[in-house]
Design a protein that fits this description.
The radius of gyration is 21 Å and the shape is globular. The protein has helices at about 15-25, 35-50, 65-75, 90-100, 115-125, 150-155, 175-180, 205-215, 225-230, 240-255, 260-280, 305-315, 345-360, 370-380, and strands at about 5, 55-60, 80-85, 105-110, 130-135, 140, 145, 160-165, 185-190, 200-205, 285, 295-300, 320, 320-325, 330-335. With about 400 residues, it is α/β, with parallel strands linked by helices. The protein is about 40% helix and about 15% strand. Helix 3 crosses helix 4 and helix 12 packs across helix 13 (about 345-360). The strands form 4 sheets. The protein has a 7-stranded mixed β-sheet, with helices on both faces. Strands 11-12-15-14 form a 4-stranded antiparallel β-sheet, covered by helices on one side. Strands 1-13 form a two-stranded parallel sheet.
């Protein structure tokens, strides 16, 4: 009873009241006119969110399902793809591609760093048989933002599709699909879109649609051309996640009612608040450059168990954060600041991090980390989203 529960994980994220109420509406049938009208309205909203003129397909699955749909729908067994592996979800691209029977060239990137466009260019030049590049916009396991706009500049002049996992990026940082020249952009419902898990969204460029039409799908459930034909009629191919799509319409209203720039401005300000507060505590930012706008990863001092820090923050202070994955288990803490999260939630998270760090055997002598974080937040709100702030450590 002492503490409000605050969900600062990198998904699922908190649900706005308006979205919760929409989710509680009476069930409607997914093949009737009432649902079709919702679907058609949602299509217009999704095109704004994705920055595309083409359809955005709702899929009844998690984000990993959309990754699977993209690989199975765009590439045939035996074709070669380049997987950017800079974290757990980059590794997932490789695993999905191998399961499809693709020949996978892995470009390994140190965890905490973004891929170099020059390295991608060299890999494509060295092997002209590569037909796709699989990459994260935001690598959720590390808090890194990959330079997908620069990668698109390399792929769009070649017979190579750029497939982007935007699961922890769409609705959080700019990624205008058509303007940047992305061939596939996908996301999930449980992060920047402020919905429960279970819905994924996927869009393709015109040339990616031509490839999808020419590729025999490797999966009965995920058939992109058939999904597109149904979306054009206000339907989905199989049973629709009705309540999630009704909730999606409300969440998109929230995101779009003041314009996407205001959303990105808020997300950038929360990122500056978090990173400045963490640096003021004397902790190391795991992604020092090219960092995501919805998640901040913090490297802990030697001898401090990150799992214990996460446990204490939840049990003592009601703040739920995430630990590291793979070889980073116990070594980093990941603070989510995406979706329905505001400056007060992040301040509570920073306090929980500082207190739990000390209880777990760490130390910080900072007395003004919250004040430093708030100063960065207000400075970021007054600047252009993405503009560096000289007064911060971020």
């Amino acid at each position: 009873m002492l503490n409000k529960v605050r969900l600062l994980t990198p998904g699922p994220t908190p649900l706005p009241e308006r979205v919760r109420l929409a989710l509680a509406h009476d069930m409607i049938h997914h093949r009737k006119s009432e649902f079709k009208a919702v679907m058609l309205r949602v299509q217009e909203q999704l095109r704004v969110l994705f920055g595309t003129q083409g359809p955005v397909l709702p899929l009844s699955c998690s984000g990993t399902g959309a990754m699977t749909a993209a690989v199975h729908g765009l590439f045939a067994p035996g074709e070669k793809v380049l997987a950017i592996e800079g974290g757990k979800f980059g590794q997932r691209w490789r695993a999905i591609a191998e399961q499809r029977g693709l020949a996978v060239v892995s470009l390994e990137v140190p965890w905490g760093q973004a891929v170099s466009p020059e390295d991608v260019r060299q890999a494509l030049d060295a092997d002209p048989s590569i037909r796709g590049v699989l990459v994260q916009l935001s690598e959720t396991s590390t808090g890194v933002l990959h330079p997908v706009e620069a990668l698109a500049a390399l792929t769009r002049s070649r017979d190579v599709l750029l497939v982007v996992d935007g699961i922890s990026g769409v609705g959080l940082s700019p990624c205008p699909m058509d303007a940047w020249g992305l061939d596939c952009l996908l996301t999930g419902s449980q992060k920047g879109l402020m919905l429960p898990p279970g819905l994924a969204l996927l869009a393709l460029s015109p040339r990616a649609w031509r490839k999808a039409e020419a590729t025999a799908s490797g999966c009965f459930y995920f058939n992109l051309p058939k999904e597109r034909a149904n979306v054009e009629k206000g339907q989905t191919l199989f049973t629709s996640p009705v309540n999630l799509i009704v909730g999606l319409e409300e969440s998109l209203k929230l995101l779009l009612e003041n314009g996407l720039e205001s959303v990105y401005r808020k997300q950038w300000a929360l990122t500056m608040l978090t990173r400045t507060g963490v640096a003021a505590l004397g902790l190391e930012l795991f992604a020092p450059h090219n960092f995501a706008w919805g998640i901040t990863s913090v490297r802990l001092p030697a001898g401090v168990d990150g799992n214990e820090v996460v446990r204490l923050a939840a049990e003592r202070y009601g703040v739920y954060m995430a630990g590291g994955q793979d070889h980073l288990k116990g070594r980093i803490v990941r603070i989510g600041h995406m979706g329905w999260v505001d400056w007060a939630d992040v301040l509570a998270g920073l306090h929980a991090l500082a207190a739990s760090l000390q209880e777990a055997g760490g130390h910080s002598g900072s007395r003004d980390y919250l004040e430093q974080g708030l100063a960065a937040y207000h400075a970021a709100l007054a600047a252009d989203p993405g503009a560096p702030l000289p007064l911060t450590h971020a």
